[in-house]
């Protein structure tokens, strides 16, 4: 059950110098408050946060995570019973999609980064519930991880870029260094390279490394968009006809800077002195330090500025009507740029917020003389909300140009608070968001049973969770890491505090979010306020709320897996009050239901694991041979661009070198089979499009091909093809040729199973194990397929050949599909594996070989008792040095907690 706690604090700002209004307001303040409360009650804000065991990974690793699903003031959500977790590659294709059951607001799972599917590169993990799909996907949990490769890797490559801009083009030189895992350069090696965009080559060339392993790739002049959206593919010749390939993103290859300016409360107003925040970033989207000055249109310097933190800073300006202001900026490389500030408004009113002391906010409402003349004695409302809940509201009449008041911070919870100034007609005039930091998180601690430990020694840690001095029952997750092999900067991490309190409520990229919560001090609080001035916040629109314009709801919250559809006759008429039976053949599970008068049926809370076959039957009805069952398809979340793209690392080999070195030792230590000798081979003809006359006009060789081995572990073909179909983009339940789709030509690809044309939904009925290969044709040759079908491109799925055997007539009849008895695949709940922990107290020393684990311990199910106490035990690895234990979680009231313990292993 969802707790509904609404706190409506209505305060008359008499300290503002406002007096009560005698006029009839068009929209009373109470209406603003009531409609906001009604909206929040009807459309509660649900969030998902994932606690990952590590900040980065290697191919072959398992990502362990716990999902925290919260609602309102971070309380465990009772709204959704299912959470979805996607892992998406840098080409914005889903690699894995998990469906997990949520119990009391929590779920846990894991993703194995197997080498057949995952390669070195950057990936993003995205998590959401069905209810969250109704709203902006920018508020999903979205986190970028970088994955290295240490398995049988011969070549480490490091790249840097130097660009030269011309009028409409840019010239890029890429400096690449090739080294072996022991850091020795690959000298005098031939390298072939290609610049690729959307799977098509733009340019190519070759060269030879020097004695230090350097190669300079001279990328031809091109437009910046082509360069930055491309990939640089290289192949280094290792001898014996063997090459090793590497790919490099060019997103940050072009040197460039941008600066944006953000007046407090949204606008510059004539005669009203305002704070102006700014944010300077490089071409990768990361903050850079700049200095500069503001000049008016006479060239007079009216302000100077310099960055305070991560490219952000603030300065004050008293703008004058009729004047234009320019920012003159000096960037880190000495280059300069000029930027126009927003236009000065002749008439207006602003909100500004400052912090006179630790306990209060100073709110200042400033109008210029022209605004006061036209709006004098008019009513205005000031409303402050957090998480959709109104915590402060006031009504006033304007009689002076400037009014100030102190508001106690205690009125608001920790987190983002939005102040909005309304006219009496309900029009939002200006806004300002602030961050309230009470430092009121749970008092959460870990206590070790010894001051120090030895390798492979047992460790016992005690958990104590309190809200102030009161013990609490809470749910927590714990990861213990080896600091030597998994070094990390806590400022860079995504934590339960930085996510639920900050990034989950803001649009746009937040660099180093945990900086503001890692040992906060006054400087960090000041920088956090500058961040509030530079980031977007639009959880909902007051204009829509007051106009009773509610968001369109496409899907309802899921309590579990649902199977639904409609029963019709062969003539298309719906059949009411009919029996439908559901079976899961391999789970010995069945259920029955009755269709409603419109023929609709629904099975709720169907418990199936992984990908399972579901059977639906309507045969237990009168005239059942003339009945047709149609099943509602599953919903797939549309993909968007990575909002945290600046977190992608190009030189992963060097960025996480200690981790990859340890992973390499782990792999080598675990290997048994060093060499495989092939005695003989047997050639088998593989199915292809050439087996069918339908495709006689297609090119002999496909543009891209996916082998059956790559698909053998794929539960649902549609999920895997949406990520693996190179050169194609999967959007809105259709495949498109990527280059044409990006150019605005949105004509879908024609799909065939063998020689049978099918639509995309058919692909959800078969698994990858049934497929021999997939062939992708970006053109249809002389076949005329695209002209005939009004399509663009051809996707041929070659199914595996089934051995021919003689069958009886009865067996043949059983193969004919019956419309009143159908079977299909459904995505069930993903099974969460148990984290493996060695027990050295019951094993002989050295029985397991070298213990090189980097995640020493993972437990997503730490529950404190009524005394706030829990404990757990594990064994250290063979690594000496510092270990760190991270615990995160929350209690039933939504109080958050995080604690990091460092201990020594000798």
Describe the secondary structure blueprint for this structure.
Layout: H1 29-42, E1 46-52, E2 57-58, E3 62-71, E4 75-76, E5 82-89, E6 94-101, E7 106-112, E8 121-128, E9 141-148, E10 156-165, E11 170-179, E12 190-197, E13 200-208, E14 214-222, H2 224-228, E15 231-239, E16 242-249, E17 257-263, E18 268-269, E19 274-282, E20 291-295, E21 301-306, E22 312-317, E23 326-330, E24 336-340, E25 344-345, E26 349-357, E27 360-367, H3 369-375, E28 379-386, E29 389-397, E30 402-408, E31 415-423, E32 428-436, E33 443-448, E34 458-467, E35 470-471, E36 474-482, H4 496-501, H5 522-534, H6 542-546, E37 563-569, E38 579-584, E39 589-594, E40 600-603, E41 611-617, E42 627-631, H7 652-655, H8 657-670, E43 704-707, H9 708-711, H10 717-724, E44 728-731, E45 734-737, H11 738-742, E46 750-753, E47 756-758, E48 771-777, H12 785-789, E49 794-799, H13 809-815, E50 821-827, E51 855-863, E52 869-875, E53 881-891, E54 896-905
Parallel strand pairs: 2-9, 18-25, 46-49
Antiparallel strand pairs: 1-3, 3-4, 3-7, 5-6, 5-8, 8-9, 10-11, 11-14, 12-13, 12-15, 15-16, 17-19, 19-22, 20-21, 20-23, 23-24, 26-27, 27-30, 28-29, 28-31, 31-32, 33-34, 34-35, 34-52, 36-51, 36-53, 37-40, 37-42, 38-39, 38-41, 41-50, 43-48, 44-45, 46-47, 48-49, 53-54
């Amino acid at each position: 059950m969802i707790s509904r706690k609404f706190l409506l604090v209505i305060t008359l700002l008499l300290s503002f110098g406002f007096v009560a209004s005698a006029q009839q307001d068009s929209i009373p303040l109470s209406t603003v408050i009531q409609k906001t409360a009604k909206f929040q009650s009807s459309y509660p804000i649900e969030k998902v946060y994932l606690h990952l065991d590590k900040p980065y990974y290697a191919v072959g690793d398992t990502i362990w995570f716990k999902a925290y699903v919260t609602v309102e003031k971070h309380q465990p959500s009772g709204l959704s019973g299912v959470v979805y977790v996607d892992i998406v590659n840098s080409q914005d294709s889903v690699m894995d999609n998990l469906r997990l059951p949520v119990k009391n607001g929590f779920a846990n799972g894991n993703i194995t980064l197997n080498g057949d599917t995952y390669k070195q590169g950057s990936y993003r993990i995205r998590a959401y519930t069905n209810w969250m799909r109704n709203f902006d996907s920018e508020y999903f949990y979205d986190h970028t991880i970088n994955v290295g490769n240490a398995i049988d890797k011969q070549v480490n490559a490091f790249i840097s870029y130097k660009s030269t801009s011309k009028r409409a083009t840019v010239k890029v030189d890429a400096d690449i260094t090739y080294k072996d895992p022991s850091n020795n350069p690959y000298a005098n090696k031939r390298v072939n390279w290609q610049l690729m965009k959307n799977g098509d080559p733009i340019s190519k060339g070759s060269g030879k490394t020097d004695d230090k392993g350097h190669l300079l790739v001279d990328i031809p002049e091109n437009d910046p968009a082509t360069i930055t959206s491309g990939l640089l593919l290289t192949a280094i010749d290792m001898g014996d006809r063997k090459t090793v390939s590497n790919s490099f993103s060019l997103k940050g290859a072009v040197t460039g800077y941008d600066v944006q300016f953000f007046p407090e409360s949204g606008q510059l107003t004539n005669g009203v002195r305002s704070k102006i925040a700014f944010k300077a970033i490089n071409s990768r989207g990361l903050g850079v330090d700049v200095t500069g000055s503001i000049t008016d249109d006479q060239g007079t310097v009216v302000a100077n500025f310099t960055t305070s933190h991560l490219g952000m800073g603030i300065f004050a300006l008293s703008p004058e009507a009729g004047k234009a202001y320019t920012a003159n900026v000096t960037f880190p490389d000495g280059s300069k740029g000029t930027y126009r500030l927003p236009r000065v408004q002749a008439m207006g009113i602003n909100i500004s917020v400052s912090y006179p002391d630790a306990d209060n906010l100073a709110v200042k409402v400033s109008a210029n003389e022209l605004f006061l003349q036209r709006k004098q004695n008019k009513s205005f409302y000031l409303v402050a909300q957090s998480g959709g809940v109104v915590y402060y509201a006031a009504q006033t009449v304007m009689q002076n140009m400037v009014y100030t008041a102190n508001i106690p911070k205690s009125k608001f919870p920790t987190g983002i608070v939005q102040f909005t100034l309304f006219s009496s007609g309900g029009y939002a005039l200006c806004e300002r968001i602030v961050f309230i930091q009470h430092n009121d998180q749970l008092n959460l601690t870990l206590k070790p049973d010894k001051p120090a430990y030895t390798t492979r020694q047992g460790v016992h840690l005690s958990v104590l969770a309190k809200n102030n001095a009161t013990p609490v029952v809470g749910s927590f997750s714990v990861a213990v890491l080896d600091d030597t092999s998994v070094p990390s900067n806590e400022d860079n991490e995504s934590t339960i505090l930085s996510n639920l309190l900050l990034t989950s409520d803001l649009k746009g990229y937040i660099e180093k979010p945990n900086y503001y919560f890692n040992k906060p001090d006054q400087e960090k609080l000041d920088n956090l306020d500058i961040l509030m001035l530079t980031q977007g916040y639009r959880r909902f629109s007051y204009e829509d709320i007051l106009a009773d314009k509610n968001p369109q709801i496409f899907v309802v919250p899921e309590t579990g897996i649902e199977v639904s559809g409609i029963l019709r006759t062969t003539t298309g008429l719906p059949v009411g009050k009919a029996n439908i039976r559901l079976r899961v053949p391999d789970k010995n599970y069945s259920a029955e239901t009755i269709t409603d008068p419109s023929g609709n049926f629904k099975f709720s809370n169907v418990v199936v694991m992984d990908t399972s076959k579901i059977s639906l039957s309507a045969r237990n009805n009168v005239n059942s041979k003339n009945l047709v069952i149609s099943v509602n398809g599953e919903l797939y979340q549309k993909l968007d661009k990575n909002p945290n793209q600046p977190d992608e690392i190009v030189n992963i080999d060097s960025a996480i070198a200690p981790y990859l070195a340890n992973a390499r030792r782990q792999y080598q230590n675990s290997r048994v089979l060093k060499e495989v000798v092939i005695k003989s081979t047997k050639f088998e003809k593989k199915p292809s499009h050439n087996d069918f006359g339908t495709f006689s006009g297609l090119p002999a060789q496909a543009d891209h091909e996916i082998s059956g081995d790559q698909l053998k572990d794929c539960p649902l073909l549609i999920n895997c093809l949406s990520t693996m179909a190179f050169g194609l983009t999967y959007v809105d339940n259709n495949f498109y040729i990527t280059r044409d789709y990006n150019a605005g030509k949105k004509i879908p690809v024609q799909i065939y199973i063998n020689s049978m044309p099918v639509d995309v939904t058919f692909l959800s009925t078969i698994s990858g194990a049934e497929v021999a290969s997939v062939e992708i044709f970006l053109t249809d040759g002389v076949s005329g397929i695209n002209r005939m079908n009004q399509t663009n491109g051809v996707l041929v799925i070659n199914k595996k050949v089934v051995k021919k055997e003689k069958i009886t007539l009865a067996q043949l009849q059983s193969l004919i599909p019956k419309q009143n008895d159908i079977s299909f695949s459904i995505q069930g709940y993903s099974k969460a594996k148990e984290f493996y922990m060695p027990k050295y107290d019951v094993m002989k020393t050295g029985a397991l070989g070298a213990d090189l684990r980097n995640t020493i311990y993972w437990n997503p199910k730490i529950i404190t008792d009524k005394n706030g106490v829990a404990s757990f035990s594990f064994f250290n690895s063979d690594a000496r040095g510092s270990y760190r234990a991270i615990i995160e979680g929350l209690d039933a009231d939504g109080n958050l907690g995080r604690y990091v313990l460092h201990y020594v292993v000798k």
